[in-house]
TrEMBL record:
Residues 7-305 form the NAD(P)-binding domain. It comes from the Bacteria. InterPro entries: NAD(P)-bd_dom, NAD(P)-bd_dom_sf. This is Epimerase. SUPFAM superfamilies: NAD(P)-binding Rossmann-fold domains. It holds the Pfam family GDP_Man_Dehyd.
Amino acid sequence: MTTKRILVTGGAGFIGSELVTQLAAAGHRVIVVDTLVNGKRANLAHLHDAEVELAVVDIRDRDAMARLLRGVEIVYHLACLGVRHSLHDPFENHDVNATGTLILLDVARRAEVPRFVYVSSSEVYGTARWAPMTEEHPTFPMTVYGGGKLAGECYTRAFWESYRYPTVVVRPFNSFGPRSHHEGDSGEVIPKFMLRAMAGKPMIIFGDGTQTRDFTYVSDTARGILLAGMVESAVGGTFNIGQGREISINELARTVAEVIGHPDAPVIHDEPRPGDVLRLYADSSRAQQVLGFAPTVSLREGLQRLREWYLSRGVAIEALLSEERVHNWKKEEITRL
């Protein structure tokens, strides 16, 4: 790869910071755009200022984005508000995720940025009608987050069809690993399970636990996203990025318990979450054929790496767990954070 000037929105977040790390390691100059609502400066602390520049900017700020995009060769657009956030603030969620994407596409095209990669979500599919799910699977989102992500996809593809502006859409399935979110309305199941089990508290499953997900280790997810910006034949395409293994939330809890060395760690069931997708299972064969993507880290190995990362941080597990909100789609719980 030749050295490029690359802009990553949401680059101080979980997946974004891993993508930035991989880009910097490959020798690229990276501009990170992040409001730090969900992202953290600490996620970029291991990188040198000569490699990575952080701009605390909202993607909806046209003037600021136009300045930052000068001379940029690839935009990786990850900035968004999450699925639980959409349950308590649907209009803000839509404005950032859908309208913000349209604004950024327009500014990037006017700046003549040669490639735009939009990072969508498997949530656009809703519950699987068939599995594994190809990119031709019907899109039937069950939350405003999924709807906003799908709108962003449609805008991204429309810019290719209408203007021949070179865009790519990627749909990552559920990712996990170091720097994943356990806190507030960004909290995800694997870090929440692991921290609870490590602290001797019960893992909480919403609903009966038969719902399934396809979990991909973050370094694999980020590599798939990176490739979408580098492979010329990806332009105009839509690509699933997933492990290609389906696991129920009940089985996930058992696996987390085994990895931390407490196979009898307790589990309790709570009320189902609104808009919860019941089944996700990726077919990533298109990404394999076009991008050369293949996952390399298994679920169990990734869980072991995550456990080791938590233990290496020098922060008490109980202190991290204090940032968790159990019903993190309810605004009254989030406001206590």
